[in-house]
Design brief:
rod-shaped, membrane, DCC-interacting protein 13-alpha, coiled coil, PH-domain like, cytoplasmic vesicle, alpha+beta, endosome, Substrate Binding Domain Of Dnak, Chain:A, Domain 2, 688 residues, 12 helices
């Protein structure tokens, strides 16, 4: 029958807020029908009670007054008795049956559905709180079984409730028409008994109404049979979906979506360390992520996900969590999916929307093409220039050199890499490292020592825990940035920014191929001595990069959140003793600032090194002068000693001259020997 609105039984398993809102409209309609039917029942019951009052017979006043009309009154009384019987059968019975059976059935199913919905919500909450680290198979099996039972019960109850509400749309028309039809037929029969002047047109009208009621009943029976068959088919097809985490082999992940909707648990902070999780319905609309609570008519904006970043995170020992960060890094949200399939599909969908694929005519086809390009991106191409020209948009060309403020190198500027092959940029068969591991090995004792010293906990209050002083405390520059590590790989060239761009492309392509969405967040500390990656929670230094070893750094030319630098270390996969490793990071739209900060640190370090060398040279000059002064002083002292010895010799020769003139001095043999020895020693000193 045209004009009959129905509840979609196929959407009962999804249980979206739109379905709940439509269900609320049908429930309000059922309540209005119930109130109206109660009033109609009371009105018709008054008519029925009025017809049961006899007009003659036992009333003595009427008998005495209207004796002459006794025959007519008896006949009318019998006609009214017949009318009362017909009203009871044709008018009161249908409306009483609709009121006592159909409306009560709706109220009962509503209560059962509400109980099943509450049980399902409680089971979902228990499942969401399952521990990821302390996993208990028995508890997990009980919780999954509880979710399966409650979801199946809710689905079946909701389908039968929807079926009853859809049937009510037909029954309310029958319940309105049948009592009126019975009332009219009873009145017509009543008047036919007294008069045969009833028009044929009214009889034809009533006949048509009766035919219409029969057609509605037949259509209702057919629709009920169809809905029952649909319920049986959906019960069989939806049985695997009752499990909260279905088998990914049976339900593969679709990575080409640009629109998705479903329930997620949202984390809301209530204090410094406390938080709550609210289950809401989320859906994407263009470049926006919308949320809608159960019972709301429409959804509200949760976050703008154009140019956003999304990654899988560990949060409060809950599984399937991911974090969305806005393009400016000022807003982030942590959400929890119900299953691994939903978890990966949400991340892929938000990634596709972040690339603004949804603005194209065929977004899913373009998303599939982009994913296919990512799969083919790691296949070596003939040359670096050809590969980048194939990925370059129409009418746009790469700049010949990188910006001086966002890239730098210790060596002289190299020539363009347009003619170089892929092997001259990245070492062939180079493994990619997606997690932060300190590069300590037996062949690098100096670096191991530096790493062991750098991996100690830094005091957030600025107090030194021991007698040693941190090597970065005397640094002029201290700048801290929030970064996420994407990966690192060994490169063969470190004198051109194109090496960083090629490494970014290969790492991002490898992440897309292997479905690696998790990134380690760290604090990057830039000083005049080194670059440090610090754990944001424990304040432990994860990795230290000496600033002199950072020979190249650059940001992505289109996505300014991506930046990387090349570290030159001793040892490696090449035959020479030096190797170069390129590290790629993602920041909160601060890639240029980080590169500028590194450039400033290298300039400060260069000036400090020049000052140190100048100071050492000045100290060396002062040491030479001091040495010359000491030599001069020594020479003067020697001359002075010689003069003193000459004076003593001259003084000792005068007594000998006096004795030759007649003055004699008697000396003992011992004194004579001593004087002889002394004169010989003085002679040797004078000769020296």
């Amino acid at each position: 029958m045209p004009g009959i609105d129905k509840l979609p039984i196929e959407e009962t398993l999804e249980d979206s807020p739109q379905t709940r809102s439509l269900l609320g409209v049908f429930e309000e309609d059922a309540t209005a029908i119930s109130n109206y039917m109660n009033q109609l029942y009371q009105a018709m019951h008054r008519i029925y009670d009025a017809q049961r009052f006899p007009l003659g017979g036992d009333d003595e006043v009427m008998s005495s007054t209207l004796q002459q009309f006794s025959k007519v009154i008896d006949e009318l009384s019998s006609c009214h008795a017949v009318l009362s019987t017909q009203l009871a059968d044709a008018m009161m019975f249908p409306i009483t049956q609709f009121k006592e059976r159909d409306l009560k059935e709706i109220l009962t199913l509503k209560e059962v559905f509400q109980i099943a919905s509450n049980d399902h919500d409680a089971a979902i909450n228990r499942y969401s709180r399952l521990s990821k680290k302390r996993e208990n198979d028995k508890v997990k099996y009980e919780v999954i079984e509880d979710v399966y039972t409650s979801r199946k019960k809710q689905h079946q109850t909701m389908m039968h409730y929807f079926c009853a509400l859809n049937t009510l749309q037909y029954k309310k028309k029958i319940a309105l028409l049948e009592p009126l039809l019975g009332y009219m037929q009873a009145q017509i029969s009543f008047f036919k008994m007294g008069s045969e002047n009833l028009s044929e047109q009214l009889e034809e009208f009533l006949t048509n109404i009766g035919t219409s009621v029969q057609n509605v009943r037949r259509e209702m029976d057919s629709d009920v049979e169809t809905m029952q068959q649909t319920i049986e088919d959906l019960e069989v097809a939806s049985d695997p979906l009752y499990v909260p985490d279905p088998d990914p082999m049976k339900f593969p992940v679709n990575r080409n979506l640009t629109r998705k909707a479903g329930y997620l648990n949202a984390r809301n902070k209530t204090g410094l360390v406390s938080s709550t999780w609210d289950r809401q319905f989320y859906f994407t609309q263009g470049g926006n992520l919308m949320s809608q609570a159960r019972g709301d008519v429409a959804g509200g904006l949760a976050m703008d996900i154009d140019n956003c970043s999304v990654m899988a995170v560990d949060c409060e020992d809950r599984r399937y969590c991911f974090q969305i960060t806005s393009f400016d890094g000022k807003k982030s949200s942590i959400l929890q999916a119900e299953s691994k399939k939903d978890h990966e599909e949400w991340i892929c969908t938000i990634n596709n929307i972040s690339k603004q694929i949804y603005l194209s005519e065929n977004p899913e086809e373009i998303a599939a093409r982009v994913n296919q390009s990512a799969l083919e991106a790691v296949t070596p191409s003939p040359s670096f220039q050809q590969r980048h020209e194939s990925l370059r948009p129409a009418g746009q060309s790469w700049p010949p050199t990188a910006r001086t403020s966002s890239s730098g190198s210790l060596g002289s500027e190299s020539t363009s890499l347009a003619a170089l092959s892929l092997d001259s940029l990245v070492a062939p068969d180079t493994p990619i490292q997606f997690d932060i591991i300190s590069p300590v090995c037996e062949d690098q004792p100096g670096q191991a020592k530096a790493s062991s010293q750098g991996n100690r906990r830094t005091n957030p209050f600025g107090e030194s825990g021991g007698g040693t002083k941190s090597e970065t405390e005397d640094s002029i520059l201290h700048q801290l940035f929030i970064v996420r590590f994407l990966g690192s790989m060994e490169v063969k060239s470190d004198d051109n920014p194109d090496v960083v761009y090629e490494t970014m492309r290969q790492i991002l392509a490898a992440r897309a191929i292997h479905n690696i969405f998790r990134m380690t967040e760290s604090h990057l500390l830039v000083t005049c001595d080194c670059l440090k990656l610090i754990d944001p929670q424990t304040q432990v230094t994860r990795l230290t990069f000496p600033l002199p070893s950072v020979v190249l750094y650059a940001t992505h030319q289109e996505n300014k959140r991506l930046f990387g630098f090349v570290l030159r270390t001793s040892g490696g996969r090449s035959e020479s003793n030096l190797s170069s490793v390129c590290y790629i990071f993602e920041s909160n739209n601060e890639g240029e600032k980080i590169c500028d900060s590194v450039g400033l640190a290298k300039q400060i370090a260069l000036h400090a090194e020049l000052d140190r060398r100048a100071s050492e040279k000045q100290k060396e000059i002062e040491r030479v002068k001091e040495k010359q002064q000491k030599e001069l002083s020594k020479q003067k002292q020697i001359e002075k000693d010689l003069e003193e010895q000459s004076r003593l010799i001259a003084a000792s020769s005068r007594p000998n001259q006096a004795s030759s003139e007649g003055q004699f001095v008697v000396l003992s043999s011992s004194q004579s020997e001593e004087s002889d020895l002394g004169e010989e020693g003085k002679k040797r000193e004078s000769e020296a």
